[in-house]
Every structure is written in structure tokens, then in C-alpha cells.
Specification:
By secondary structure, the chain is α+β, with helices and mostly antiparallel strands. It has a domain of 96 residues: Sandwich (HSP40/DNAj peptide-binding domain), CATH 2.60.260.20. Helix content is 20%, strand content 31%. It is built from six helices and 17 strands. The strands form seven sheets. Strands 10-11-17-14 form a four-stranded mixed sheet. A hairpin with a 2-residue loop joins strand 10 and strand 11. The protein starts with 14 loop residues before the first helix and ends in a 7-residue tail after the last helix. The relative contact order is 0.14. Bound molecules: zinc ion (2 copies). One zinc ion binds next to loops. This is CR-type domain-containing protein. It holds the Pfam family DnaJ. One of its GO terms (cellular component) is cytoplasm.
């Protein structure tokens, strides 16, 4: 739990950095093309070049690998060279450095934590850099040598028959995984350059996040290999229900029940808001189903928390199913009075 309200998170150190991260996360999800790739292939798909051990007959982990294998041989002829982008036109051997994969973690917040933001610590399983070999995977004191199968090119050539004809296919050398080198594996990580560890991460959740928000924490995914950049950590936000309050974006909704007498005469009702209990003035003659608006008692805007939504209070009027003898007498007197004057708020 955190102490609401933390409205001005911009003043806190590192807040700007967090908002930058949020901005990137939202960018990923608002771009339709990217979102399609994301939904289909996850973060790895967006990064294009990574995660791919995709030689022929191997399962492809992202769409670019497919093209790369199919048209890989044409890269040398200049045919595909101009297409740019992560996967295309990569020359000779696979880059020795490989970026780390992105991580994903679910985080459930209390209703008010999401409204006002909070700090949370989360434990993340991930692959950390191997300290023994410093992500190279090479046993210290040994030196990598040229791969005997591909002679250091990182590629092997084979013919592939397709309905369009026979293609010369170039794929990564299976012996050295496209790196052009073989080496003695590090004892600690087995040549992976990374080891599995749990890391505790301090996360600053900004005010105004909603269910389905995705926070991106840069560099907290898996470590890269052979000096490659670390992946990012994506935090998927879900929010617990509140017993009285409901949320629709920046707007809070709640119900208040008053007696029919209070509806006629007006009253003060105690209403729960995200800021705590507030006395709300119910004007005389309030109709059942009326919605009263409490301005700026809603959810702070993500990224500019001094802007706030409203709180809508839906008024329910309680009509008693039974009356005491005295009450009944009074209501009957009221009825009589109405039939004489033909005016008034009652029409029985
Ligand atoms: Zn190692
Ligand atoms: Zn090789």
C-alpha cells in the first residue's frame, strides 16, 4: 500500500524517466502494426533481429527470420539489401553480440494505488549476466578459434526447392550458431553468458495507470549475450475492485442512497471518494436516478497528475415498503393537503 495522494510525482527523482518509459510502452500498444506483431510474436517480434536461431527446419521465433532464411541468399546480390530493418540484408556472419529477451510480469494493484501511483518491489526471474565470463560464454583464459565448418563466415549454403524454382539458401552455420567461431564454454554458465537469477526491482507506478496498462522498465529484462544490450521488462497492470467505487478511465462512479424525505427536502450525504469521505450536498427536489458531479475528485491524468477527472454520484431514492402508524398518518395528511391545493411535489 502507498500513501495517497501522491499527486505531484514529477517532483520525485526519477519520475521523468518513468514517464519516458510509460510513453514508450504506450507507443508500442497504440501503433496497430506494431500491436499486431506484438500480439503474435511478443516483444521479441518487435525487436526484429533477436531470439532467432532460425536456420531451415528450425522453428521461427519472429517474422523477420522467415524472410531472412528465404531470401537470405539474395542479400549478396543486392536484391534485398535496400529493405533495411532489423532482419533484412544482414551480411556474412551473425553479430557476436545478441540483445537480451524482454521479460513480462503481472502486477495487481489496489484500487487507490492505481489512482495515485505507488512504489512497489517485484521479484523477477531472469537471466543475468555471467560474472565469470562477462557474458562472452568463453571460459576465461581460453581464446575462440575459427569455426571449421563455415571457415568463419557463419553461414552455410544449401539448395532449396520451392514451387517458384530452386533457390540457393544461405543459413546460419549450425556448428557455431552463425558466429563464425567456436570456443571453450565457461564453466559457470555453460557458454550461455548468462545465469538464471531472481532480481528484486523497485518500480515506481505513476498515478493514473489503468487496468491493461503496460509499463516498460528499460534494461530489466534478460541480460544480452556477448556484450549485447539487456532486454526490457514489461509490467502488465491489473487492478482490484473497490467495494464502493467504480472506475471508467479518469472518471469515478459511486452510488448514494437517500430517503424519499431527504430527496424532497434536500440533505447532506457522506460520500466515499478517492480522497476519503466527503460531505455532498443533495439539493431539495432531487429526482431518483439523478447524477451529481463532484469535479476533480476523479483519477489523475497519466503523465500530468495535476489534471484530474470527476466523480459521478448516482442518487438512489429509498421508498419505504412499510410505514409506522404515525408516518402513515402524516403522509395521508400530506395527500389531503395536496388534493386541496392541487400543487406540490407529490402526485399520488
Ligand atoms: Zn559464463
Ligand atoms: Zn560455423
Amino acid at each position: 500500500m502507498c500513501e495517497p495522494p501522491i499527486l505531484d510525482v514529477n517532483k520525485e527523482p526519477g519520475a521523468e524517466e518513468v514517464f519516458k518509459k510509460i510513453g514508450e510502452a504506450y507507443e508500442v500498444l497504440s501503433d496497430d502494426t506494431k500491436k499486431t506483431i506484438y500480439d503474435k510474436y511478443g516483444e521479441a517480434g518487435l525487436k526484429g533481429g533477436m531470439g532467432g536461431r532460425g536456420g531451415p527446419g528450425v522453428e521461427f521465433t519472429n517474422p523477420f527470420d522467415l524472410f531472412e532464411s528465404f531470401f537470405g541468399g539474395m542479400g549478396g546480390m543486392g536484391g534485398m539489401g535496400g529493405m533495411g530493418g532489423g532482419g533484412f540484408g544482414r551480411a556474412s556472419s551473425r553479430s557476436r553480440t545478441q540483445p537480451g529477451e524482454d521479460g513480462r510480469v503481472e502486477l495487481q494493484l489496489d484500487f487507490l494505488e492505481a489512482v495515485f501511483g505507488c512504489s512497489r518491489e517485484i521479484d523477477v526471474d531472469r537471466l543475468n549476466a555471467c560474472e565469470v565470463c562477462e557474458t562472452s560464454g568463453v571460459r576465461p583464459g581460453t581464446t575462440p578459434s575459427t569455426c571449421p565448418q563455415c571457415q568463419g563466415s557463419g553461414q552455410v549454403v544449401s539448395a532449396m526447392r520451392t514451387p517458384l524454382g530452386t533457390f540457393q539458401q544461405v543459413s546460419y552455420c549450425p556448428r557455431c550458431d552463425g558466429q563464425g567461431q567456436t570456443f571453450t564454454a565457461c564453466d559457470k554458465c555453460g557458454g550461455e553468458g548468462r545465469v538464471e537469477e531472481v532480481k528484486r526491482i523497485s518500480l515506481k507506478v505513476p498515478a493514473g495507470v489503468d487496468a491493461g496498462s503496460r509499463l516498460r522498465v528499460r534494461g530489466e529484462g534478460n541480460s544480452g549475450r556477448r556484450g549485447g544490450e539487456a532486454g526490457d521488462l514489461y509490467v502488465n497492470i491489473s487492478i482490484k475492485d473497490h467495494p464502493e467505487l467504480r472506475r471508467d478511465g479518469m472518471t469515478i462512479h459511486s452510488d448514494v442512497e437517500i430517503s424519499y424525505v431527504d430527496a424532497i427536502l434536500g440533505t447532506q450525504a457522506k460520500v466515499t471518494t478517492v480522497d476519503g469521505p466527503v460531505e455532498l450536498k443533495i439539493p431539495p427536489g432531487t429526482q431518483p436516478g439523478t447524477t451529481l458531479l463532484m469535479a476533480r475528485r476523479g483519477v489523475p491524468k497519466l503523465g500530468s497528475p495535476t489534471v484530474r477527472g470527476d466523480h459521478m454520484v448516482h442518487v438512489r431514492v429509498r421508498i419505504p415498503k412499510s410505514l409506522s402508524a404515525e408516518e402513515r398518518k402524516l403522509v395521508e395528511e400530506l395527500k389531503e393537503l395536496q388534493s386541496k391545493t392541487k400543487v406540490g411535489p407529490f402526485r399520488f
